[in-house]
Amino acid sequence: MKNIPISAMIGLFFTALYFLMAIFAPLLAPYGMAEIVGDVWEPRSAEHLLGTDNIGRDLLSRMIYGGRTTIFIATAATVLSFVTGSVLGFFAAVAGGWVDQVLSRFVDLIMSIPTLIFALVVLSVMPVTVPVLIVVMGLLDSTRVYRLARAVAVDIEVMDYVEAARLRGEKMKWIIFREILPNALSPLVAEMGLRFIFMVLFVSTLSFLGLGVQPPEADWGGIVKENKDGIVYGIPAALLPAFAIATLAISVNLVADWVLNRTTSLKGGRG
Amino acid sequence: MHPVVKLVSQRLALGLLLLLAASALIFLGTLMLPGDVAQSILGQSATPEALANLREELGLNRPALVRYFDWLFGALQGDLGTALTNGQDIAESIGKRLGNTLFLAFWAAVISVPLAIFLGLLAVRYRDRWPDKLISAVTLASISIPEFLIGYLLIYFVAVQMGWFSSVAMINDSMSLLDKLNAIALPVAVLTLVVLAHMMRMTRAAILNVMQSAYIETAELKGLSTFHVIARHAFPNAIAPIVNVVMLNLAYLVVGVVVIEVVFVYPGMGQYLVDHVAKRDVPVVQACGLIFAAVYILLNMIADIVAILSNPRLRHPK
Amino acid sequence: MSEPLVKVRNLKIGATVYPPGEKPHDIEIVHGVSFDLQPGKVLGLIGESGAGKSTIGLASMAYGRGGVKITGGEVWINGRDVLKSKLRDVRRLRGGEVTYVSQSAAASFNPAKKIMEQVIEAAVEQGKFSKKEAEARARTLFAKLGLPDPDNIGDRYPHQVSGGQLQRCMTALALCPEPDLVVFDEPTTALDVTTQIEVLMAIKEAIRDTGVAALYITHDLAVVAQVSDDIMVLRHGNTVEYGPVDQIINNPQEEYTQALVSVRSIEHDEKAPTPEPVLSVRNITARYKGTKFDVLHNVNVDLHPGQTLAVVGESGSGKSTLARVITGLLPPREGEIEFAGRTLSPDLAGRSREDLRELQMIYQMADVAMNPRQTVGTIIGRPLEFYFGMRGAEKRKRIIELLDEIELGESFIDRYPAELSGGQKQRVCIARALAAKPKMIICDEVTSALDPLVADGILKLLLELQKIENVAYLFITHDLATVRAISDNIAVMYQGKVQRYGGKTEVLSPPFDDYTDLLLSSVPEMRLGWLEEVIANRKMESAGN
Predict the structure, then answer these.
(1) Rounded to an integer, what distance in angstroms lies between the CA atom of residue C141 and that of residue C138?
(2) Cys-Cys with C522: which of B26, B48, C197, C282 at CB 3.0–4.6 Å?
(3) What residues pair up with B221 in beta bridges, in sequence order?
């Protein structure tokens, strides 16, 4: 783990910080998530480090719980997107023929509609709950992962070392897990960081539009929405969660960027 | 048939097919998903009779395919049905809002496209020096920042603290063009910032790709001036990738409009769509979804067609 | 002696490298090279990859590719030090006094512009000729270079002419402004051997007729011997030997030069056929899925145990397709393959583990033939495990034996492919094939991606291993020197058919059919005057017809 550039260190530090805050939210938050403890939009004070929100809840506590929701939904959706996308992508690449054709054309179709618009259409008929959000976001995004996984696997498939394994008489299992997967992992892991960022932005955007996490539950996007009216009066409460989203996303991006750079300059696959 | 004509018509046909498939996906998708429009409108406490009546009234009992084709042919003739919530004609409501949205997107494009290409060229010119590094840092930040943060930052600092421009972007027919432009200044600025970084980074990559070709070296070894190398040898080959970049980002801009309209309470398609998703007004959502999808598919199709038209191998077959 | 056209003194060139995980830093890639070139003379720069020869060639135009910088020394052209000239003067030099012909004309022509426009551009831009004069000159050059339809070929786009033709167009582009010096950078390397000789002849005649001086850069000493007056041998950015062509070829002083001159002179006596061939290819006709024409037509060849059958041909001859058919990757439309006394299933899925074990394959690009995520030990060990069920210490012992056989030590067992040189990689691939204890190995262009001396080492190793293991090789190659070095039998392939087939001596002795004659006479020989002989012979033949 030596030779980590400074930017990646910063990224790792803040990413870890946000995740730890999400995990230990109940221990860290000074007040309850939906507890009304003060006046509307109180300024910063010793009791309320970040002030209070539009109905007098402690903003710091709400931010900590909101981060937990945002990170949980984004993580779950990323995992779903990855598992679905990469399994189907590898499957299409190795199976080839009509399986590949059907899957790929279907993905083309889904991708011909902008993701946000598609999500809005689906959410107009589905009840907006956390599991529904995760499934909708995860499945829509899995089309991107599918494309990448398939492209990577197809590239590796035509390599002479895979042909050599086939000529040796190796079974499909060895070819996928020992020849293709170790070589496909790095680009996929780097992509995972980018997908996670996209998920954070996606769920925040939906909540900001009022179509994501429903009150009194909160996520960062939702907190922005709740406090946005304060902005015109010069109250910056809405900027804080937006700022949190941006810093989390930038941190993960710095890490992903480093992973990507490190893996494109492969040296024996170690390091 | 000339291969270019063949490929372009194939791409056009594919675009139409995609649009058709997308319309089916939007319409039938909303039907197949669990959830009941009648229930949504009347709420959980509705009596079974009321629900049945409403379903009958809305034609929900007819086969899905019949309803889809009705809807599709209606849409082709400009009839998008009526909104469930207020009974207004959807096409009429959309008409003016679509105009407003395109007005906003148009000005964002007018500013961001030349700016992005200029900055992209600048990044290439000063490759690996500070202007280039700055651009890549800004790009990294900008893909990580939600659109609404940029929006509220501008509102907070520019509109509220400094008192320039208005925090809401209301426009109507009685305003002069200058008033309208003044009203949309902030949303245009946000949209520009949102697509600018992407577009200039992609432009940079496209130009670098061309500049690293062996034929550019040949041109340099002919003793041509930098201007001639770029104008005669790089430019003709860079048009297609740059147009491609612009189209992809315009498609991205169309989606970004949705959020920005909500931030600035702008009377456009995005705001209209979001409002009616919340009200579960499915016909409106379907109509808006179809229009957004159509614009998106169209822009992607133009990008592909430009690439075909500018490929010398296809234009001058063996 | 008159003032030289080009005078290079103590030229030093540096480059910035970006090793992964380290800070970028500068290294020196050319360490003080000096030479003179008189007007109208040709200097050959020869060396392996990484010798710095192309970099030196471009430096004579004051040009550095990528992160390459000229860090010291002098380059005098026509009495001016171009390294100290202003950019404006350098531009007058480039394309006017000094011009350049690159290895890949296909990439060096702008795809969006017509050939003529590009050929005359420098001449017109530099004010040497008017557009009309330049076009007339270009047409003359097209004719001189033997291009078909010289009056109209300039109206075509680069992708509309063949690779060999485009390379000649590039030569016309370089000669059009009447330069004093042309830098030829591996101009024939990417071409098939029969095309190479045509381009080589055209270049040689054009140099002679126009009286231009040239720097001719190549890795092939036999080629450079045909066109040069002087030769400079380079290695790792240093001059190894520099002198008249006669001295370098016939009386080399340095050990390295001697090795280069004697490369591919391995003596190998043809073995007599055995009664039972290990492989019999019977009436094979094959085509790729979804295509409408056969790439192999009724191919019949035999390979005897412990012997080598060389399958020779140019690109598109079907030689690699034959390998795919034998391995079962491409089931043939007709015909069958007998191997070790049994008939092989046409497709891979139908073959037994024993079939697969006894028929191994070695690839052209060792880089992509090994999984970058596996160590040498895993790569060589897998066949042992897979075919013989070896584990643990037994497997390790056998891997070390194999590593010894390929002349690499035990210390290589934990290395990854990326840590090996090109020759070492190919050796590991050989060990992997040997691990299966095969009766036969298909070698698909296994030396063509390697530098000549390294390739020689691989060929010697293969011959040595053949003696020890009694393994048969089906050796696919486009290089006739390799064929001479290792084969017992030869099959010459042309357009999917076996054109000529038999023992080595028989195939390589007259009377020849037309294609074999063309192929054999096109292979550059390491002696002076060879090209002139071929030119004279071909002129006589065409006059006789």
Answers:
(1) 5
(2) C197
(3) none
Report the pLDDT value the prediction gives residue C480, as an integer from 0 to 100. 84
What does each C-alpha distance from A72 to A85, A122, A131, C122, C176 come to in angstroms?
20, 21, 11, 63, 69
Note whether B144 contacts A197, CB cutoff 8 Å: yes
Tokens of A87: 């399994």
The predicted-structure confidence for B47-78, as pLDDT tens digits, reads as follows 888 878 877 776 777 777 888 888 888 888 88
Chain B residues touching residue C112 (CB < 8 angstroms): 236-237, 312
Reply yes or no on whether the pLDDT at A269 is more than 60: no
Report chain C's mean pLDDT, rounded to a whole number: 89
User: Does domain C279-368+436-509 bear CATH number 3.40.50.300?
Assistant: yes
User: Domain C6-261 carries which CATH code?
Assistant: 3.40.50.300
Q: What topology is assigned to A71-262 in CATH?
A: MetI-like fold (1.10.3720)
Q: Is C528 on the interface with A (CB under 8 A)?
A: no
Q: Cβ separation of A169 and C356 shorter than 8 Å?
A: yes
Percent pLDDT > 70 in chain B is 95
Instruction: For chains B and C, count residue pairs whose Cβ atoms are closer than 8 Å.
Output: 76
Task: List where CATH 3.40.50.300 sits in chain C.
Answer: 6-261, 279-368+436-509
User: Under the phi-then-psi rule, with left for phi > 0, alpha for psi from -120 to 50, and beta for the rest, what region is C91?
Assistant: alpha
The ipTM (two decimal places) reads 0.84
Is pLDDT at C436 greater than 70 in this prediction? yes
**Average pLDDT for B87-100:** 87
Chain A residues whose C-beta is within 8 A of a chain C C-beta are 3, 159-161, 163-164, 166-170, 178-179, 182-183, 262, 265-271
User: Closest-CA residue in chain C for A186?
Assistant: C373
Q: Do A267 and C418 touch (CB under 8 A)?
A: yes
To test the contact with chain B by mutation, choose from A102, A121, A133, A199 the residue with the greatest count of B C-beta atoms within 10 A, namely: A121
C344 in A contact zone (CB under 8 Å): no
Q: Cβ contacts (< 8 Å) between B22 and chain A: which residues?
A: 109, 112-113
Task: Give me the pLDDT at residue A271, please.
Answer: 27
Nearest CA in chain B to C103: B214
Indicate the range of B148-157, C233-242, C345-354, C380-389 predicted with least confidence: B148-157
Answer yes or no: is pLDDT of A72 > 90: yes
Domain boundaries, chain A: 71-262
- pTM: predicted TM-score of the whole model, two decimal places: 0.81
Burial call C374-389: b when 16+ CB within 10 Å, e when fewer: bbbbbbbbbbbebbee
CA count, 13 A, side-chain hemisphere, C385:
11
Q: Where are the domains of chain B?
A: 90-315
Q: Out of C348, C370, C419, name the one closest to residue A166 (CB).
A: C348
Separation of alpha carbons A115 and A140, rounded Å: 7
Does the pLDDT at position B39 exceed 80? no
The answer to whether residue B238 scores a pLDDT higher than 90 is no
Point out the residue among B219, B221, B316 whose CB comes nearest to the CB of C61. Answer: B221
Q: What share of chain C is helix, strand, coil (3-state, %, to 5)?
A: 40, 25, 35
Query: Confidence class of residue B140 from pLDDT cuts 50, 70 and 90?
Result: confident
pLDDT digits (tens, 9 = 90+) for A159-192: 899 999 999 999 888 888 888 888 888 778 878 8
Number of Cβ within 10 Å of residue A7's Cβ equals: 17
Choose which CATH entry (2.160.10.10, 1.10.3720.10, 3.40.50.12710, 1.10.390.10) describes domain B90-315.
Answer: 1.10.3720.10
Q: What confidence score (pLDDT) does residue C267 get?
A: 73
Question: H-helix or E-strand containing C519?
Answer: helix C514-522
Pairs of CB atoms within 8 A across A/C: 65
